[in-house]
Design goal:
The protein is of the alpha/beta class. The protein is built from 15 helices and 10 strands. The structure holds flavin mononucleotide.
Length: 370
């Protein structure tokens, strides 16, 4: 399970590059500003949020720890941050938005059949989701060597290596077993609750999402529509011209095209391409509060966390998740103060050291400055 969450595609270079490229960005400390009070609240897509960050869509979170979806929804409600619910989530989309008290977006994969996709969009509308996020960077499944090595498939295949893994991780295995006795085995619940009881095929093609699919979805979904998994500026410009409300710059945390650019570089390029006022959401490689401030300074309006929250869940369940979110929030607040910002909305390219003649200019900051 750890390898499924932590792993990436190919030789996994992009996974590390995403974070190290953010590390290279330098922020400029500002002084003699009263930053004793700092306000982390933000807004994105007409929604007010308690923090400038939220939780990225991830399938089968219950594999990290039993009851993960409930914990995620609870934190989203408590902190007023968006939880993006995956098509492959391990709790039905209707139940998550209820537990999250409305602080949820729905992520759509255009996979399996047109009927299933259409039904999912209808269900999201009926459950009162205001934001639909179409993920487009999985036209075909990538090769994830760790999953291959471990024989990790979904639905799970049982063999000696799997039994050995369960036996050597008794804490997780027992907790999952006990939870399963009352709630059933973790499974992609949106499939299980569809009218046709469609079954989830992890390696199904998601190639049906072409430009015409996006145009039709734009017509079908009058509320906020976001496209996730965009790195090419030309694609971003075309989406903007089609009336998409926001672009979610991401390389799936290095889990798709391993040879793709570090996501933070794409963020700078896409910000330049779409102009200053178009909403951009960002993820991939974000591991702490400092990274959030750097992404906001590089052009993001909002930042999402993927693996970081799963690590918290896997380490200590709901308490681990809560600790991770506390730590990140505290770091954002501290770094904001040290760069002289009292509100998260004040974070902009002026926070980058490169904007003040600092010689340690990174190529990313140069692009933002252009
Ligand atoms: C275990 C796991 C499952 C994921 N499942 C989905 C998914 O169902 N839909 C989706 O759009 N992205 C999915 N992603 C990608 C995340 O939404 C996000 O783009 C990525 O994790 C960000 O990178 P980071 O993990 O480095 O923060 C998944 C990522 C992980 C780690």
């Amino acid at each position: 399970m750890f390898d499924f969450i932590d792993g990436a595609s190919g030789d996994e270079t992009l996974r590390g590059l995403n974070s190290s490229a953010i590390d290279q960005i330098r922020l400029m400390p500002r002084v003699l500003i009263d930053v004793s009070e700092r306000d982390l609240s933000s807004s994105i897509l007409d929604q007010k949020t308690g923090m400038p960050f939220g939780i990225a869509p991830m399938g089968m979170c219950a594999l990290a720890w039993p009851g993960a979806d409930r914990a995620l929804a609870g934190e989203a409600a408590r902190r007023r941050i968006p939880l993006c619910v995956s098509t492959a989530s391990s709790m039905a989309l209707e139940q998550v938005i209820e537990l999250a008290e409305g602080h949820a977006w729905f992520q759509l994969y255009a996979d399996q059949s047109d009927e299933f996709v259409d039904e999912l969009v209808g269900r999201a509308a009926s459950a009162d989701y205001q934001v639909l996020v179409l993920t487009v960077d999985v036209p075909i499944p990538s090769v994830r060597p760790r999953d291959r090595r471990n024989g990790f498939t979904f639905p799970m295949r049982w063999g000696l290596p799997q039994l050995r893994d369960f036996a050597t991780h008794p804490h997780w295995s027992l907790a999952t077993l006990i939870h399963a006795l009352s709630h059933g085995m973790p499974q992609p619940m949106n499939y299980a609750t569809s009218s046709g009881k469609t079954s989830f095929v992890r390696n199904a093609s998601r190639a049906r999402a072409g430009w015409s699919f996006l145009a039709a979805l734009r017509d079908r979904w009058p509320r906020k529509l976001v496209v996730k998994g965009v790195q090419c500026p030309e694609d971003a410009i075309r989406m903007k011209s089609m009336g998409i409300d926001s672009i979610y710059v991401s390389n799936h945390g290095g889990r798709q095209l391993n040879a793709a650019p570090a996501a933070i570089e794409s963020l700078a390029q896409i910000r330049q391409a779409v102009g200053a006022n178009f909403p951009l959401i960002f993820d991939s490689g974000v591991r702490n509060g400092e990274h959030v401030v750097k992404a906001l300074a590089t052009g993001a309006d909002f930042v999402m966390f993927g693996r970081s929250v799963m690590y918290g869940l896997g380490a200590a369940g709901g308490r681990g998740l809560s600790d991770v979110l506390d730590l990140i929030g505290h770091e954002v607040s501290t770094v904001m103060g040290l760069v002289g910002c009292r509100q998260s909305g004040e974070i902009d390219s002026g926070c980058l050291a490169s904007q003040h003649g600092n010689p340690a200019i990174h190529v990313i900051s140069e692009r933002v400055a252009e």
